[in-house]
Write a structure and sequence with these properties.
Blueprint: E1 9-18, E2 24-34, H1 36-50, E3 62-67
Antiparallel strand pairs: 1-2, 1-3
């Protein structure tokens, strides 16, 4: 049985990072039934794995999670 606490919900997660060519890239996803930390960590893992060949490691990856309202 899975327990849900008050900190779980649906989050809109936006990630901004720079490519090796210097372009700013933004990706957005919706994460369902997770905590804010899980949403941010999941997005960071997704971007790191999916775009590992183009990410400029000299610049930070910025991840912002906002609770969606429905």
């Amino acid at each position: 049985m899975m327990l849900f606490f008050g900190n779980h919900g649906d989050y809109e997660v936006t990630c901004n990072f720079f490519s090796k060519e210097g372009q700013t890239i933004a990706k957005k996803r919706i994460c369902h039934n997770v905590s804010k930390k899980e949403a941010r960590d999941g997005m960071r893992d997704y971007v790191t794995n999916r775009f590992s060949d183009i990410i400029d490691v000299a610049h930070p990856i910025k991840v912002v999670a906002k609770l969606t309202t429905k």
